[in-house]
Amino acid sequence: MNALKISFALLISACVVVSSLLFLSWNSYKTVEVPSFDDNKDFTSIDSCYFNEKFMTVKGWALNPEHPNNHAVIYARKNKSDEWVVVKSSIVSRPDVSRFFKVNSVYDRSGFEASIRNISLLGGLSGEIAVIINEDKAKARGIRYECK
Q1: pTM
Q2: All structural domains of the chain
Q3: Please, is 59 exposed, middle or buried when counting C-beta atoms within 10 Å of its C-beta (0-12, 13-18, 19+)?
Q4: Cys staple from 132: which of 28, 38, 110, 142, with CB 3.0 to 4.6 Å?
Q5: If you average pLDDT over residues 64-75, what whole number do you get?
Q6: Is 100 helix (H, G, I), strand (E, B) or coil?
């Protein structure tokens, strides 16, 4: 009976360790270098940016008029550091952007939604984001924004 209790405790401990390792590997913050960029305020809009102790979500649109098929990359700054992480995002249809610029459907795929978990164990996030579109390998346009 005592060996059974010890085996059970060891199995529970192993499950906790494996679950923790999987959580940390799937939710890790891989730091990246944010490319330098020129201001792009005329062609970027943050519709909403929500930030709290658990997560951050960003919605908006960004475009590069010379390269309409290039999509924005969203970065979030880690808390109390100059390190940045890429925020996973998806493309959102924004026909209103094309209508605003009077270009039929050219900018319909300029919208984005991005979200990331704010995990204090991994250093947490500051609430500052950068939305950047590469023009080519040497030049990028973007904005910085502070989520509230």
Answers
A1: 0.81
A2: 29-146 (2.60.40)
A3: middle
A4: 142
A5: 91
A6: helix
